[in-house]
Amino acid sequence: MASDLQIAPGDVRLRLTEIFFSLQGESSFAGLPCVMIRLTGCNLRCTWCDTEYSFHGGEWMTVDEILVKTASYGARRVEITGGEPLLQKDVRVLAQRLLDAGYTVLCETSGERDIDILPREVHRIVDFKAPASGESHRNDWANVDRLTPNDEVKFVVQDRADFDWMLEQVERHRLAGRAQILVAPVYGVMNPTELAGWLLASGLDARLNLQVHKLLWGETPGT
């Protein structure tokens, strides 16, 4: 395969599971119109994963083709997600081309990949994995030093043990003030009302993250 230096930007290809137009379901951008670009492939196997259909298959598209499809929706906000989007090294090319085209660009990634592959102008949403996910040992805590005020940190919690673990990590890594902190319940497992009570009692200045898209459309792919 040719190297990046030999490939014209418009010929760079990525493998996609889907592109669709929806409301952003999570983060501080929740509820806003957003084009979702879901890349194929993931190296983690979280116990509560809701996008297993993105692990395999997909369709190869050039960056130019992705930009044309994205532009067809008329929105100015885009999220690159997965799977794990940072597994495809040319995601940085896609992100930069979207930025150059004037889009507000978000990228949701696990805390296991080096987020500095992405331009700093991207709103990087780093999903550090809690113990109940089965993948907490994969977190790369060096990502904390890579965070900017433009970024957000997300914890998905399944139970009280996960929540207490999250509080420990926030204190240990001094996350408060580094980036917006998001706390999400595992959909259909963790009672969001109970989680809200824990959050209020903890005194942590974090945003309860309720996955608006699932409240509206359930777990249907492409919504």
In short:
The protein is an alpha/beta fold and 223 residues long. It has helices at 63-71, 91-100, 160-172, 192-202, 212-217; strands spanning 13-23, 33-39, 59-62, 77-81, 104-110, 123-128, 152-157, 180-185, 207-208. Strand 7 (152-157), helix 3 and strand 8 form a beta-alpha-beta unit.
What does this structure look like?
With 223 residues, the chain is of the alpha/beta class. The chain is built from 5 helices and 9 strands, in the order βββαβαβββαβαβα. It has helices at 63-71, 91-100, 160-172, 192-202, 212-217; strands spanning 13-23, 33-39, 59-62, 77-81, 104-110, 123-128, 152-157, 180-185, 207-208. A 9-stranded mixed sheet has the order 3-1-2-4-5-6-7-8-9. Helix 4 (192-202) links the parallel strand 8 and strand 9 (207-208). The radius of gyration is 17 Å and the shape is globular. The relative contact order is 0.15.
Blueprint (SSEs and pairs):
Layout: E1 13-23, E2 33-39, E3 59-62, H1 63-71, E4 77-81, H2 91-100, E5 104-110, E6 123-128, E7 152-157, H3 160-172, E8 180-185, H4 192-202, E9 207-208, H5 212-217
Instruction: Identify low-pLDDT runs.
Output: 1-8
Order of strands side by side in the largest beta sheet?
3-1-2-4-5-6-7-8-9
Mean pLDDT: 93
Span between termini: 35 Å
Principal-axes geometry comes out as globular
Instruction: Please summarize the sheet with the most strands.
Output: 9 strands, mixed
Taking all Cα atoms into account, the compactness measure Rg is 17 Å
What's the SSE pattern? EEEHEHEEEHEHEH
- Strands, total number: 9
Task: Report helical residue fraction.
Answer: 10-25%
Number of helices: 5
Structural class label:
alpha/beta
- Our estimate of the beta-strand percent is 15-25%
